[in-house]
Amino acid sequence: MSKFRIKVYPERCKSCQYCIKFCPKNVFEVGKKVNAKGYEYVEPVRMDDCIGCQSCTRICPDGAIEMYKEVE
Ligand code: SF4
Ligand code: SF4
Questions:
Q1: Per CATH, the architecture of 2-71 is what?
Q2: How many angstroms is it from 54 CA to the middle of ligand 1?
């Protein structure tokens, strides 16, 4: 079985929330922590629901999201 894993690079995120809007599985939420630029960066809080569609990696204007497949 394989799982999709999502990595958000906090320092690249501008909290535009496009990933939240475009993720069909509602994986992301704006977190409570702030990066060095003062943005509340998003976190992949429901990563186990990810279906690997890559909408988030494509839509993020700042390349802050990476998706990879974990093979078990
Ligand atoms: S790959 Fe698709 S399902 Fe997974 S977090 Fe990104 S937008 Fe959501
Ligand atoms: S699309 Fe990219 S920059 Fe925008 S909130 Fe999501 S991770 Fe941050």
A1: 2-Layer Sandwich (3.30)
A2: 5
Q: How many residues does the chain have?
A: 72
Centre of ligand 2 to C-alpha 19, Å, is: 6
pLDDT tens-place string over residues 10-57:
999 999 999 999 999 999 999 999 999 999 999 999 999 999 999 999
DSSP-derived pairing of the beta strands 2-8 and 28-34: unpaired
Smallest-distance ligand from the CA of 55: 1
0.90 cut: is pTM over it? yes
Tell the residue number behind the tokens 């509602």, with chain if given: 26
